[in-house]
Amino acid sequence: MNSEQTPDRTKDGEQWLDEGRLEEALAHYSASEPRMGLETRILAHIQGHVARRQRRWRFAFAAAAVAVLAMVVTANLWKKRTIDSARTSTRPVPSPVVSKQPVVSTMADGENLTSQSVQKPRVISHRRKIGSSQVLTAADVRPSPPVQTDLTEEIAVREMRVSPVGATPELYVSNLRTIEPVEIRELSTKDRN
Amino acid sequence: MYLPEQVILSRTIAAQSEAEQVEAVVRQHARFVYQVAYAVLRHPQEAEDAAQETFIRVWKHAKELSGILNHRAWLARIAWRVACDRRRKSLPAAADKDLLDVPTPEPGAEESAIRSQQMQLLERLIATLPNELRETLALSTVEEMTSVEIGEVLGIPESSVRVRLLRARQLLREKLRALNEREKAPTKRI
């Protein structure tokens, strides 16, 4: 193949060495004609590009609007939740300070054995606690009176009997007082005078 | 936002005129842009794609159209850059393809066969030129492109364009002579 082309090329090369032939060859170098309807195809391509771009922009706007809407809704929900939780947390939690007086006193001093010992613990003041306040159960706030066993009841009765009359309740006092016999004598005139 | 009717109307007219301007430029210079792209890419389909991309860029800068004095040089510069980008991207595939993309001659047409061979040879020789000389020479082969326009495209003065063209042609002739001498040698041996 090389041997066949070589004479032609040599011939062409010799011809191109002339100024005119080289110029002519160079003139044909970029003389390529486009296919028919190049302008129409280019305009159609531009229109398609514009349409695609518009669609893309619309989609971007729609996506942005949806995103903003979602953010607003989420923010509202979060705000509402925060307010609710703040309300519950700032509500005054009754945290009574229970008096340090013993609820049940020892039976040694009979004076304390009044109805006060059976009463609820005295609440001195309410303090407002916000946030992580110590949660008190109902039992802590209103403790039930200690259960009286049979032995403690018996001890209490004995103590009441021993204790002075004035200090005991009326109920017990009436039971404990001995009724002395009344002496009945005849009324005489001497006595009247 | 409330817009007065006049503002809306003027905007609509402006938009229409931009579209019309672009259309006019396409109809006037599409072939020229194609040829600039073809001078770089040496492939008809690639050149057409490059021309389309060029006019997309023109459309993006349609607002500048009214302020441009020489549309041809401006378009040639855009087409040149687009074509160079495309060539860079498809360089490995196009390297071997360059020589194959020369239009095949019609069967039996001796003249076109000779021209095809000449073009193949010329393309090989141009491909061996230095980059700056090759670019200048390729642009100079585009129809009706002056050395001033080539200078604007390449960003060099006109005198440099002339010097480069002269140098490129000298090199081509030297290469042709060398080729002739090399090809004469084996024939003598045979």
Report on this model:
The complex is a heterodimer of chains A (193) and B (190). Chain A is rod-shaped. Chain A contains seven helices and no strands. Chain A starts with a helix and ends with a helix. Mean pLDDT of chain A is 70; it is low at 1-7 and 105-110. Among the domains of chain A are: 47-90; 149-176, no CATH class. Chain A has helices at residues 2-16, 19-27, 38-90, 138-141, 150-162, 170-176, 189-192. Chain B has helices spanning 5-41, 44-60, 71-89, 91-97, 110-127, 131-140, 147-154, 158-189.
Question: Which helices and strands appear, and what pairs or packs with what?
Answer:
The complex is a heterodimer of chains A (193) and B (190).
Chain A: H1 2-16, H2 19-27, H3 38-90, H4 138-141, H5 150-162, H6 170-176, H7 189-192
Chain B: H1 5-41, H2 44-60, H3 71-89, H4 91-97, H5 110-127, H6 131-140, H7 147-154, H8 158-189
Helix pairs in contact in B: 1-2, 1-3, 2-3, 3-7, 6-8, 7-8
Which key phrases capture this entry?
heterodimer; A: mainly alpha; B: mainly alpha; Rna Polymerase Sigma Factor, Chain: A
**CATH structural class of the largest domain in chain B:** Mainly Alpha
Give the low-confidence spans of chain A. Answer: 1-7, 105-110
| CATH architecture descriptor of the largest domain in chain B | Orthogonal Bundle
Mean pLDDT of chain B: 79
In total, the number of strands of chain B is 0
Question: If you compute it from the alpha carbons, what radius of gyration of chain B comes out, rounded to the nearest whole angstrom?
Answer: 22 Å
Largest interface: A-B, 33 and 45 residues
Helical amount of chain A: 40-55%
Order of helices and strands of chain A: HHHHHHH
Q: Summarize this, please?
A:
The complex is a heterodimer of chains A (193) and B (190). Chain A has 193 residues and is an all-alpha fold. Chain A contains 7 helices and no strands.
